[in-house]
Write a structure and sequence with these properties.
With about 140 residues, the chain is α+β, with helices and mostly antiparallel strands. The protein folds into two domains: about 100 residues, HIT family, subunit A; about 40 residues. Helices cover about 45% and strands about 20% of the residues. The protein is elongated and about 75 Å long.
C-alpha cells in the first residue's frame, strides 16, 4: 500500500513535491491541484490513513506544521482565512488541506452552505414547535 502512495513517493524522493515547511514527523507541500493559489497539504511522514490514528507526537507535529504553514499562507496571500480540513479517503494517507479562502470564492460558498444547513436545522425545529405553529395559524386566520 505505502509503496504506491503518492505522498510516500514524494517523501521518498521518487516523485516531485514542493515542500513549504517540515519537521521530524510532518511535511507541508504545495497541492498540485489547488483550489486557490497557495493551497497546501500537510502530511505525516509515516503512512497512516486517518489523522486520529497517529501517535500523540505525530498529531501534535501535524497540527504544528499546519499552523506554521497557515501563517505563511496568510502572510503570502492575505486571505480572509485559511480553511483547514483533514482527509485520508481518496488518497489513503492522512493529509490536511490548508486553503486560502476569500469571501465569495467557491470554498467560502461551500462552507457557508454547510453552515446554513446547521443553522437551518435549528430554525426548522423552531418553526415546527407547537408554539410556532399556533402563532402561524393565528396570523393566517387573522389575515
Amino acid at each position: 500500500m505505502a509503496d504506491t502512495c503518492i505522498f510516500c513517493e514524494i517523501l521518498a524522493g521518487r516523485a516531485k513535491g514542493r515542500i513549504v515547511h517540515e519537521d521530524v514527523h510532518s511535511v507541508a507541500l504545495l497541492d498540485i491541484n489547488p483550489f486557490s493559489p497557495g493551497h497546501c497539504l500537510v502530511i505525516p511522514r509515516r503512512h497512516v490513513q486517518f489523522w486520529h490514528d497517529l501517535s500523540a507526537e505525530e498529531a501534535a507535529s501535524l497540527f504544528q506544521v499546519a499552523q506554521e504553514t497557515a501563517r505563511r499562507i496568510k502572510q503570502a496571500y492575505r486571505p480572509d482565512f485559511v480553511a483547514m480540513y483533514a482527509r485520508g479517503r481518496r488518497i489513503p494517507h492522512t493529509h490536511i488541506f490548508l486553503v486560502p479562502t476569500f469571501g465569495g470564492d467557491p470554498l467560502d460558498r461551500f462552507f457557508n452552505t454547510l453552515e446554513g444547513f446547521q443553522e437551518q436545522t435549528t430554525r426548522l425545529a423552531d418553526i415546527r414547535s407547537q408554539k410556532s405553529l399556533d402563532e402561524a395559524w393565528q396570523r393566517l386566520v387573522q389575515s
